Structure formats: C-alpha cells, structure tokens
C-alpha cells in the first residue's frame, strides 16, 4: 500500500471517530427541592461533585403481604435531597420507574407526605 493510501485511510478513520460523537447533547445539573427534582441520570453521574444523583426504582413482590412500590430520589450539587415513594402504584407509574436508564431525563414531584405525585421519564440520545 502506498503512502497516499495510508494517509487517506488514516484521515477516514479519524473522521469516523469524530462523527461517532456528533449529535445534539444536553447536560445540566440536578435540581432538587422539597417538592421534587429533575435532571439527567448521565449528567448526575458525570458531575464534578460527589453529591448529585437522580433515579427511580420499582419494587415488586409475589406475596400479597409485601407492598409493591415505586420510589424516586435525587440530590443536587448543594446536597439538597428529596425522596418519594408510592405504594401500590398504577401500571403507568410502575412502567415510568422501570424505564429509567443511562439515557433518562427524570422529573418527579413530591407531596407533603413524601408520596410521588408525578413521575416523568424521557429516554433520549441528547441525554448521553
């Protein structure tokens, strides 16, 4: 293979690597208050501090004596943390919590008794 072909292949490889990181991207800090939180899972994980996190979990049991519930929690850069749980959630609330992954943007609201009153999950490449 001649030098010109090698240079051409090297340039093509470099351009391919650069285009792999192309695309729209959004990364913001977690926002948390007594009333709820919002933010992206990956942004929390890649934050410069060790305080930010956000996520939801769904718990289920085969026994009727153990409650099924969904819980969400978050903390912002200042350490403000919020948590909520909903026992015996509807199917749709359960599915929202189960959909959380590394590409998730999450919003959840909390009432005075720490019940989750709203859970929104959006999975999108812009969150990566």
Notes on the structure:
By secondary structure, the chain is of the alpha+beta class. It has one domain. It contains 3 helices and 7 strands, in the order H-E-E-H-E-E-E-H-E-E. Strands 1-2-6-7 form a 4-stranded antiparallel β-sheet. A 3-stranded antiparallel β-sheet has the order 3-4-5. A hairpin with a 5-residue loop joins strand 4 (69-75) and strand 5. It is globular, with a radius of gyration of 20 Å. Residues 3-19 have low confidence and may be disordered.
Characteristic key phrases:
three-stranded antiparallel beta sheet; four-stranded antiparallel beta sheet; 3 helices; 128 residues; alpha+beta; single chain; disordered N terminus
Q: What's the gist of this structure?
A:
Mean pLDDT is 85; it is low at 3-19.
What does the secondary structure layout of this molecule look like, with pairings?
Blueprint (H helix, E strand, L loop, with lengths): L2 H18 L10 E3 L2 E5 H5 L7 E7 L9 E7 L5 E7 L3 H8 L5 E7 L5 E8 L5
Antiparallel strand pairs: 1-2, 2-6, 3-4, 4-5, 6-7
What would the average pLDDT be, to the nearest integer? Answer: 85
Largest sheet: 4 strands, antiparallel
In total, the number of domains comes to 1
> What's the end-to-end separation, in Å?
39 Å
* Low-confidence runs: 3-19
Order of helices and strands: HEEHEEEHEE
Strand order of the largest sheet: 1-2-6-7
Shape: globular
Please give the count of helices: 3
Strand content: 25-35%
**Count of DSSP E strands?**
7
Q: What structural category characterises the helix and strand content?
A: alpha+beta
Task: Classify the helix fraction into a percent range.
Answer: 10-25%
Rg computed from alpha carbons, rounded to a whole number of angstroms: 20 Å
């Amino acid at each position: 293979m001649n030098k010109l072909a090698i240079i051409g292949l090297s340039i093509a490889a470099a351009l391919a690597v650069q285009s792999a990181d192309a695309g729209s991207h959004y990364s913001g800090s977690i926002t948390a208050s007594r009333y709820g939180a919002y933010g992206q899972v990956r942004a929390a994980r890649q934050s410069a501090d060790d305080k930010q996190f956000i996520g939801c979990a769904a718990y289920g049991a085969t026994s009727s004596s153990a409650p099924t519930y969904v819980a969400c929690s978050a903390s912002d850069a200042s350490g403000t943390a919020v948590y909520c749980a909903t026992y015996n959630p509807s199917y749709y609330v359960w599915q929202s919590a189960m959909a959380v992954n590394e590409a998730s943007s999450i919003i959840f609201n909390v009432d005075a008794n720490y019940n989750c009153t709203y859970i929104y999950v959006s999975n999108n490449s812009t969150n990566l």
